Amino acid sequence: MSRSKGLGKGLDAIFQTENVVRDNGSETKVVNIKLSELNNNPYQPRKTFQEEKIKELAESIDKNGLLQPIIVKKAVKGYYIVAGERRTRAFKLLGREEIPAIIKDFSDDEMMIFALLENLQREDLSPLEEAASYKKLMESMNLKQEELAVKLGKSRPYIANSLRLLKLPLDIKDLLTEGKISAGHARTLLSIKNKKDMIATCHKVIKEQWSVRTLENYIANQERPTTKKVVAKDIFIEEQETLLKKRLGTTVHIKQNKNQKGKIEIEFSNNEEFERIVALFGK
Predict the structure, then answer these.
(1) Which of 114, 130, 161 is the last residue of a domain?
(2) 264 bridge partner residues
(3) Is 272 in the active site?
(4) Could you tell me if residue 147 is inside a domain?
(5) Catalytically annotated residue among 18, 56, 59, 85
(6) What is the rounded end-to-end Cα distance, in angstroms, of the chain?
(7) Rounded Cα gap, residues 193 and 191, in angstroms
(8) Contact predicate 41/75, CB 8 Å
(9) What is the pLDDT of residue 231?
């Protein structure tokens, strides 16, 4: 795969929608291609397809026809589906042999990013599929988060937060993919450093149906430092503290450890009070 930072044609040229079929020129000509000649896009970010949704799409196509042709790229043998895998699956379900298509001359990088944008625009990707796609684009095109954000029209924090999901333990990734927790839950769980605690908390979220805010509050409470247990002072020490406070007219603390070593702390608020206390010791 090419590893250039630029995409050559520019985003406007690469990411035109299927509406370009109304333009003139052979590049946008719609042709019928046999389904047997189509190969799945190797850079397809979407890994799961809901059969029920495919059936609904097939029924719509059967009733209303195909509103938009798919987009393909010539391969060594046949064609790669660049955009329109769901439509292709629906055609297969209907038992059709051919599908209307537009043949485009894409590079590997362009084919990858086109497939990603098509899915993002249709909100077809799961949070993990989206994150994996961002990572793949950054690696294949030598892009930084800021550069990818500009190309995709996203903010850098959005890209960064998405990529953080890839750090989740596999157990939590599965629960996120199954829709049992949201991406917001998953990102919040990442603030828990211990993996076992993270997984245990995740199951608590599901069992008790916590909102993201509830989870945030729970974690914040868990991270608060434990209040140190106050050790009761020896009664003799307390008596001596009281006597010194009365004699010196200020706050006095006597601290003693297990080895009977200790110190006496006498507080003063200004130079005048300091001199007054020192003078008392001279009497």
Answers:
(1) 161
(2) 254
(3) no
(4) yes
(5) 85
(6) 91
(7) 6
(8) no
(9) 62
